[in-house]
Design goal:
Oligomer: heterodimer
Number of helices of chain A: 0
Order of helices and strands of chain B: EEEEEEEEEEE
Shape of chain A: globular
Structural class of chain B: mainly beta
Number of strands of chain A: 11
Order of helices and strands of chain A: EEEEEEEEEEE
Largest interface: A-B, 25 and 24 residues
Largest sheet of chain A: 7 strands, mixed
Distance between the termini of chain B: 40 Å
Helix content of chain B: under 10%
Strand content of chain B: over 45%
């Protein structure tokens, strides 16, 4: 099973700042089958990025994904008030799927 | 628009069984893999299972293998999760999700399963 480790656990930033979230895999994620999700309290997760760098339908271009192999990054170029939430990475390249433990982006 | 509506959650005793359902609409259900993902109270997301579009292939997390069974009825646009031998650690909100290119692009609002005596 591929283990995904996200860092930091919590990111305290102000609106307008840049957020950089990391997701590290215990072994290489095949074909960059890495996705990022956003979850707000009381809501279902929302797909942001798939294939490591492709934005899902309707996702603003301030969200971008990069990386390959074992190291992946989600960048939010300028935080909007609605972006404060928990973010999860997920790999779907191996026979099973796994999620990271999440990074909370909170208002500083 | 794509809609996924889960049902069947509730309170069940340890060792008991429960069957979750997910009603899909707004897309051609038979074209897509479907997944179940759960989230224990205050915790992160845990993938549970997925099923191929024609039901020919299923896969499960080790934590539920042998106890849970995923299935679907393409004629009814419905996804199911049969959960047997339930444990306290199975307590969670269970989400169904549509899978596209392997990622889960639409999610339902979830149904709460509580396993407690």
């Amino acid at each position: 099973e591929i283990v995904l480790t996200q860092s930091p656990g919590t990111l305290s930033l102000s609106p307008g700042e840049r957020a950089t979230l990391s997701c590290r895999a215990s072994q290489s994620v095949s074909s960059s089958y890495l996705a990022w999700y956003q979850q707000k309290p009381g809501q279902a997760p929302r797909l942001l990025i798939y294939g490591a760098s492709s934005r899902a339908t309707g996702i603003p271009d301030r969200f971008s994904g990069s990386g390959s192999g074992t190291d992946f990054t989600l960048t939010i170029s300028r935080l909007e008030p609605e972006d404060f939430a928990v973010y999860y990475c997920q790999q779907y390249g191996s026979s099973g799927r796994t999620f990271g433990q999440g990074t909370k982006v909170e208002i500083k | 628009q794509v809609q996924l509506v889960e049902s069947g959650g509730g309170l069940v005793k340890p060792g008991g069984s429960l069957r979750l359902s997910c009603a899909a609409s707004g897309f051609t259900f038979s074209d897509y893999y479907m997944s179940w993902i759960r989230q224990a109270p205050g915790k992160g997301l845990e993938w549970v299972s997925y099923i191929s579009s024609s039901s020919s292939y299923t896969n499960y997390a080790d934590s539920v293998k042998g106890r849970f069974t995923i299935s679907r009825d393409n004629a009814k646009n419905s996804l199911y999760l049969q959960m047997n031998s339930l444990r306290a650690e199975d307590t969670a909100v269970y989400y169904c999700a549509r899978s596209r290119h392997g990622a889960d692009d639409y999610w339902g609002q979830g149904t709460l399963v509580t396993v407690s005596s």
